[in-house]
Amino acid sequence: MPTCKLKQIDDLISPENKAFENGTTRFGELWSSQHHLNTDTTYNTKVPEGLHIGSGFANMQFQSLSLGQIQTCGASLQILQCPAGFDENVTTRIGKGRVFSGGLHFSDIATLQSEELQDILAKLATDAPLNISTNIPFDIAKRLCSSADQWFQGKALELYMEAKAYEYMAVATAVLTNNDFILAKNVTRYAKQARDIIEADLENVPTLAVMASIAATNVRSLTQAFRNSYGCTIQEYVTERRMEKAIMLLEQGHSVTETAYRIGYSLPYFSEKFNTHYGFNASTVIVI
After folding, report:
1. CA atoms of 66 and 41, how far apart (whole Å)
2. What are the pLDDT tens digits along the chain (288 aa)?
3. Which InterPro entries match (predicted)?
4. Which CATH topology does 204-284 take?
5. In the chain, where the domains are located
6. Based on the number of CB atoms within 10 Å of its own CB, is 231 exposed (0-12), middle (13-18) or buried (19 or more)?
């Protein structure tokens, strides 16, 4: 990630009350940042392609359409493989208070082929493109986010930055090897599968047992993963999507009876659900 891009993203968090440093290693761009936020802060940005390993200490919520939603509180480590052409806005919400963060961004294809990264990339390829662990010790997270002491200069600073890059890779390898990302894996993989099943046939959504079987997990793990990812139950998500489709069909001129049928509800049940959801009757929707 170019230095200017790092600085732009960091400024989105807060342009004041902060310290920001960055440097280049043979692996990629290394950066660290410290903020003191007086209020909760939310910002949107596009994440550059490549491999991102980041660490931090904050109350943070991360959300994107394809990656889902994950919340952390305290020390955490984030690993994200962002494919070429990734063009989604990622929304990040950070709670007020002292915030430490830092990371290493690998953008060069040749660098991603280095031996040191193969275990990490293999895990991301088989499990999920985003992994977040809250099991990282606070001392390690704080050390990863710390800036270089001014005592290091010239070649000594280069060696320090190189060592920091290796430490990021070592911590990422350790937590992936120890399966400390189980929740994040489930959030990304199981929840996305369930959502894809729902969106494929909103009228005939299968039972939780069938969805769990397709996702190769159990109902409890599937429902927990879905709630952690999208902030609602599977049933709440289905209802919300059906109501969105219902209002669209009604505005297009479809009858209440036909609309109910096309979203998988009986007429009396649909009328009750619609009124509860929107606060007015389906028959009063004006055709656009």
Report:
1. 22
2. 334 444 444 555 555 545 567 888 888 888 888 877 778 888 888 777 888 898 887 778 877 766 666 777 777 888 888 777 766 778 888 877 778 889 999 887 667 777 878 888 887 776 566 777 777 777 788 888 888 888 888 999 999 999 999 999 999 888 777 755 544 444 457 787 888 899 888 889 999 999 999 988 888 878 877 876 666 788 988 888 888 889 889 988 999 999 999 998 998 899 998 998 888 899 888 876
3. HTH_AraC, HTH_AraC-typ_CS, PchR_regulatory_protein
4. Arc Repressor Mutant, subunit A (1.10.10)
5. 3-180, 204-284
6. middle
SS3 sequence of 153-190? CHHHHHHHHHHHHHHHHHHHHHHHHCCCCHHHHHHHHH
DSSP of 110-139? HHHTSGGGHHHHHHHHHS-SEEEES-S-HH
Report how far residue 118's alpha carbon sits from residue 240's, in angstroms, rounded to the nearest whole number: 41
Separation in Å, CA 205 to CA 132, 196, 236:
30, 11, 13
Domain 3-180 classification at class level: mainly beta
The position carrying tokens 């028959």 is 283
